[in-house]
Specification:
Helix content is about 40%, strand content about 25%. The chain is of the alpha+beta class and about 100 residues long. Helix 1 (about 40-45) packs across helix 2 (about 55-75).
């Protein structure tokens, strides 16, 4: 069975206070990100891993998905030669703890 492709739009905005004490918002980066994973469902499952705050579950899931994607798309990059096998083992451990039945690589 083919999995439904999902598409996400990531937009990071830096929030600060200017010299007059007013909120200042500045977009620092944006990009599209896709795959077959349901990021919201993954975050809900990740909350069971004992993070101190819900936002940490969100950060963890995004970091895992982004890192997996970058390593997969740059498999021949020497930068990841040492780290990729360790990341793969960690990812499999997390998937097992979350009861993920996804057979994707």
């Amino acid at each position: 069975m083919e999995k439904q492709k999902k598409s996400y739009y990531v937009n990071m905005i830096e929030a600060s206070i200017n010299e007059e004490g007013k909120n200042k918002m500045a977009e620092v980066l944006n990009f599209n990100f896709g795959g077959h994973h349901d990021i919201a469902a993954m975050v809900e499952r990740a909350k069971s891993l004992g993070f101190a705050k819900d936002k940490h579950a969100k950060e963890f899931v995004l970091a895992m998905r982004f890192m997996h994607h970058v390593i997969k798309k740059n498999a021949d990059n020497a930068l990841f030669a040492e780290f990729a096998p360790q990341f793969e083992a960690f990812k499999k451990s997390v998937k097992q703890q979350l009861g993920c039945d996804c057979n994707c690589k």
